Amino acid sequence: MNLLARKCAIAKQKGAIVFESIELSDKILKIEKKMRRCLSLLSSSLSSSSSSPLLKQTQKMVSVLPIPMHLGQPHAGTDLSPAMLQSSGLFQVLQENDWLAIRSENLCDPSQYSDGNGGRNDIELRDYNARNCSKIGLACEKIDQQVYQHAITDNFLLIIGGDHSIPIGTIPPIFRARKNTGVVWVDAHADINTPETSRSGNIHGMPLGFLLGLVKNVNQLPSFQYFKPCMEPRDLVYIGLRDVDIAEKRMIKELGIRAYSVMIL
Predict the structure, then answer these.
(1) How far is Cα 221 from Cα 224, in angstroms, rounded to an integer?
(2) What DSSP line would sit under 52-105, residue for residue?
(3) Is the dihedral of CA 217, 222, 225, 226 positive or negative?
(4) What is the C-alpha separation between 170 and 175, in angstroms, rounded?
(5) Of 205, 203, 209, which Cα lies nearest the Cα of 188?
(6) What is the mean pLDDT of residues 173-194?
(7) The pLDDT of residue 18 is above 50
(8) How far is residue 120's CA from residue 180's CA, in Å, rounded to a whole number?
(9) What is the largest CA-CA distance in the chain?
């Protein structure tokens, strides 16, 4: 019996509801396939970067910053991505492309912010329509401080999440340290909702709403007293939009944000 089958058997003995091992194996294979594709794309990107004469003059340094965040949405598993990527050949790809990797510990500890409630905080959902905002605010403040220390170096920053609440903590310090920063948002979703427009209250759909200063009275949200928006619409371009809420379409048009989509906005 392989390790996966043994784990499923043990889980069933303890009364847990699990996928059949063949279904779980299939899901894991699909995840591994996607990760190999991501690493292949990263390898191609790094190879292109390596051709730059400026980069050849000195050792290329990359800070690998894992952020195992899951609180921005209600499903478990997004916090596992950094570890899975790192164990699936990430550092080998970097080394093969002549990058010296500076490995960082996790920038947040998900267990520190977990209350055993499956990533749900219905009180904050009811009061602010921003589930887990206090925990996300605390985590993102810590993330902000640590990312800044890497951003003030000349290192390439390779930040691995984690759900899409983490840009609230990663992008502001980069803008402070690197004044000419722009953001290319490659995603099927616009992530520009706010607590006023979100239908779910999940913050993973709101990071650009925070970063662009669209969230009203943001400093009155629990644990967001420190937060300052950092972006202007001209700093952002979307690529690959496919599933965009009506309120998000309106904001994109009103703000004049450049968007290259696979749908009609």
Answers:
(1) 5
(2) -HHHHTS-EEEEEEEE---TTSS-TTGGGHHHHHHTTTHHHHHHHTTEEEEE--
(3) negative
(4) 9
(5) 205
(6) 97
(7) no
(8) 37
(9) 60
Token code pair at residue 5: 């089958």
Q: Residue ranges per domain, the chain?
A: 22-44+59-261
Helix (H) or strand (E) holding 212: none
Sheet containing 258-261: give its strands across. 183-186, 236-241, 258-261
Residue 159 and residue 223: Cα distance in Å, rounded? 23
Strand positions, DSSP E, the chain? 60-67, 99-103, 156-161, 183-186, 236-241, 258-261
For tokens 């699936």, name the residue.
88
CATH architecture of 22-44+59-261: 3-Layer(aba) Sandwich (3.40)
- Report the percentage of the chain scoring pLDDT > 70: 74
